[in-house]
Amino acid sequence: MNNQQQTQTALVLGLGASGRAAAALLAGRGWRVVAADSADNAGLRATAESLRETGIQVQLAPEKLPLNGVELCVVSPGVPLDSDWCRQVVRSGIPLVGELELAARFCAVPVLAVTGSKGKSTAVKLSGDILRLAGKRVALGGNYGTPLSQLVMQAAADVYVVECSSFQLESAATFAPAAGVLLNIQPDHLDRHGTLECYAGIKRRMFAVQGSADLAVVPEGMQHLIPGEGRCVTFGTESAAAAAYRQGRIALHTGECIDISGTYFDNPVLGPAVAAVTLAVAHFGADKTAVETAVRSFAPLPHRMQLVALKNGIRFINDSKATSLSATAAALQMCVGPVHLIAGGRLKEQNLYFLKEILEKCCKGVYCIGEAAKIMQKNWGGACECHECMTLERAFEKAVHAASFGDVVLLSPGCASFDQFDGFEQRGNLFIKLAGAYS
Q1: Cβ(306)–Cβ(298) under 8 Å?
Q2: Residue 288's Cα: distance from chain center in Å?
């Protein structure tokens, strides 16, 4: 793709942030752009009007896709590749790419990419903090918030740090980050991807076309599964890893140690993530001093193990971003003290039983909300006191009534929020409001 392709036409499917950014990027490079969204509401009509003012054609809830003359189709992450629209595009012989893939084709800045089932956003923020301390100009984006297409248009930087979801990677073909980090693979989004094997294969696509100068950072034991020609290094908790978390320290294969004791990251869940990030940022010249400084000054992201109140000796932790059961399991492992867990919403997976052991170990009670309340109570009732509360307000009321000095009231739903809320942020904000009002 280049500026000589003045007369080509592209179709963008989906008018979320990624779709809007892709449309703007193509229009700015001289393409004729048509954008379509399957919905039609007041918000989308306002979006459509602003796009039309820039010369982009927009169709809302079209009866059929405007495929005539289209030479490229860009699909937003929220549009599944097996949707009717994508199938129509493929049958028409039109190349289909995702927004991440499109942006990568125009990107001239080295990318540090982070993927995995949990912990991506925290790792992206920490990477950015470290690289800034190392004197680099950094822009954060991808699934983290700002689409890569928008960064390519607007952000002058030495490094882009990009969070990559499975929805973005499933349509990637030439995306090759200078350094890629795979934090973990656990069941998530199986409602879209079908099987854990398929989901894992999509995550590994991030490394498929890396060159020999690129870096692949993966959990110990997974190096033999990683495609591409990138230099592969491992992290974890074992001494054979290039970076290993052990008892408050990151031990590097060089013999150096990074002290993270007593920090937000000093636990078996986030400690290995620091090990992974340490390897990745070193690829761009960051040293251990920058890592230690960033870890000790790190401000956790909202809705991710966020301590929102400490009242009567009870800690209230908002982990509303935990939308998978594996994320809830990780949250429980990070808590110090007996936990009163508020969980539930719209389940994305079927196996709830694997959490019983950790619930027995960590929880005084579980308070279940939303669509999953009945099935959670049925599956977990033998592990600890398990209450079917349905609403977050009722669950909070019962949890604080049962909690005592030294306990934790934890919102870590393990589910999507869309049965009762507009998103995990709204769910988390309600928990924060309830905690603030508690006395």
Answers
A1: no
A2: 26
Residues 400-431: tens digit of each pLDDT = 999 999 999 999 999 999 999 999 999 999 99
Structure-derived torsion over alpha carbons of residues 233, 236, 238, 242, reported in degrees to the nearest 10: 30
- Asked if residue 263 lies in contact with residue 293, where contact means CB atoms within 8 angstroms, the answer is no
Residue with tokens 């700015």: 28
Exposure string of 352-378, with b = 16+ CB inside 10 Å and e = fewer, is beebeebbeebbbbbbbbbbbbeebbe
DSSP category for residue 416? B
Exposure string of 179-201, with b = 16+ CB inside 10 Å and e = fewer, is: bbbbbbbbbbbbebbeeeeebbb
Q: Collapsing DSSP states into helix, strand and coil, what is residue 414?
A: coil
**In 170-281, beta strands by DSSP E:** 179-182, 215-219, 231-236, 243-246, 249-252, 257-259
Whether residue 316 contacts residue 308, with contact meaning beta carbons closer than 8 Å, is answered with yes
Determine how many CB atoms are found less than 10 A away from the CB of residue 211.
Answer: 11
CA-wise closest residue to 340 among 398, 269, 427: 398
Query: What amino acid is encoded at 103 in this protein?
Result: A
Rg (CA), the chain: 23
Residue-wise pLDDT for 48-102, tens only, equals 999 999 999 999 999 999 999 999 999 999 898 989 999 999 999 999 999 999 9
Return the structure tokens found at 328: 């809830």
- Total count of residues recorded for the chain: 439
Delineate the domains of the chain, giving CATH numbers in brackets.
9-94 (3.40.50.720), 102-296 (3.40.1190.10), 306-437 (3.90.190.20)
Is the separation of the CB atoms in 26 and 12 below 8 Å?
yes
Q: Name residues whose C-beta falls within 8 Å of residue 148's C-beta, 6 or more positions apart in sequence.
A: 21, 99, 100, 103, 104, 107, 111, 141, 142, 160, 162
Degrees (nearest 5) of the Cα angle 388, 391, 396?
A: 85
Closest CA to 376 of 338, 349, 397, 400: 349
DSSP conformational letter for 225 = G
Are residues 96 and 73 in contact, defined by beta-carbon separation less than 8 angstroms?
yes
Q: Tell me the pairing of strands 249-252 and 243-246.
A: antiparallel
